[in-house]
Amino acid sequence: MKTEAEILRSVPLFAELNPEALALLASRLRRRKLPGGTPVVYKGDPSGALYLIASGRVKVHQATTSGDEVILDVKGPGDFFGEMSLLDGQPRSADVSTLETSELLLLGGDDLRETIHQQPAVAWTLLRLLSQRLREQNEQAEMLMTRDVAGRVADRLLRLAKSQGTLQPDGKSLQLEVRLTQSDIAALVGATRERVSRALSAFRTSGAIAWNKETGCWLIKKPEVLAKRAER
Prior knowledge:
The protein is an alpha+beta fold. The protein has nine helices and twelve strands. The chain has a four-stranded antiparallel β-sheet.
């Protein structure tokens, strides 16, 4: 099992801390191990801690007025969440739940603010990461407005392959290391499960993707096919 310091070092936000600062911060972390399908935070909760993902994966999601679920993001090892509420003091802006058994490290708000005060490099890294997330959200909004369901599915699969994919022995295929049902993908792209199912079937027929029954994960076999479809 990785130590707190090793996990901190794997998180881009804290990767540049000197050993002394890293050790001090590591001593203030709290561990939580949660089974899959467990709520971590709810939208509207008061800010409390920054969450670092040591292992497992979580989804950031919201419920629409009609009661449907929209998945805003999927995060895995090395990612973090909860920073917005700590920075602006506002309630949590979305729900977060585990997709699989996950181990999380919690860093209190006061500890994060003290670290930023003492280590300005952390503040600059945080600004860069927040800017990157805002850019990705803008791109996602544009995708939802300008592409059909198949294009949105192709785009989302490629993005997941980039952030949650593992290169396979053939040197080309990527396995999404997150178990997503058709309903999950529908929630990610803002479409009905039926329309997403048709898009996935078409991609499987073309050989662009496959379903790995052993792992329960999707395989991206021809990313160039998805990329071409995502551009339409």
